[in-house]
User: Which sequence fits this backbone?
């Protein structure tokens, strides 16, 4: 009987995975239907789905990362701190496309281990689009690079990515365990990725000298709209 239960659970997982990968059905609906099927078929008892530490919902990931980090990021967003960093990176790069991409990736990779990679992208992406439009370049390669950099950087700590805290809570891993074992590997992978983007997006690095003035005219200090809140945060 346990073998049959395992096969049914695997089938449900594979079907859900196919629908999620195809993107033809809303992902939230797929996950809810798959979870409901698991409960209806008795593969996961209803009580365990909500209260079991090992087989149920991981409340640590929901409240610490998805809720807690959203609150923190919401506060930081009001200060204009990430807009400040984006403008600063654009000015320091002097409009050079690859240099700009590297600086934005570094900002994203450093922020992701502490603010959660998903919420970091939500803050970095808007300013990236503005800067790219000012430079007359396509923002798509920069957004792709930032997303990948955030995933790489988020793997460095326990709180950098929801799967990290799920794995950590199940395996009994601490924040120091991630720092000791993951951070060195993440650093090497990130450096390799930065070098790889030079080749991957080589056709997108079009330097427009006449557009540089549009960026240098920006004043990053004006992006900080609430200095007092930033200090308290």
Assistant:
């Amino acid at each position: 009987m346990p073998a049959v239960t395992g096969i049914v659970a695997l089938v449900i997982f594979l079907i859900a995975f196919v629908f999620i990968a195809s993107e033809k059905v809303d992902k939230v609906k797929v996950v809810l239907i798959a979870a409901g099927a698991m409960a209806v078929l008795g593969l996961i008892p209803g009580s365990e789905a909500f209260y079991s530490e090992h087989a149920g919902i991981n409340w640590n990931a929901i409240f610490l990362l998805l809720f807690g980090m959203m609150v923190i990021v919401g506060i930081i967003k009001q200060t204009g701190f990430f807009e400040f960093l984006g403008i600063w990176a654009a000015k320091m790069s002097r409009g050079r496309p690859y240099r700009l991409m590297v600086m934005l990736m570094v900002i994203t990779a450093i922020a992701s281990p502490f603010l959660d990679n998903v919420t970091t992208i939500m803050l970095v992406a808007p300013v990236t689009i503005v800067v790219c439009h000012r430079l007359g370049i396509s923002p798509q390669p920069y957004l792709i690079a930032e997303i990948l950099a955030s995933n790489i950087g988020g793997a460095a700590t326990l709180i950098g990515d929801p799967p990290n805290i799920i794995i950590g809570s199940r395996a009994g891993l601490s924040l120091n365990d991630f720092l000791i074992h993951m951070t060195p590997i993440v650093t090497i992978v990130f450096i390799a990725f930065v070098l790889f983007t030079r080749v991957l997006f080589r056709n997108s690095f079009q330097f427009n000298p006449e557009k540089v003035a549009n960026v240098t005219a920006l004043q990053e200090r004006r992006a900080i709209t609430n200095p007092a809140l930033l200090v308290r945060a």
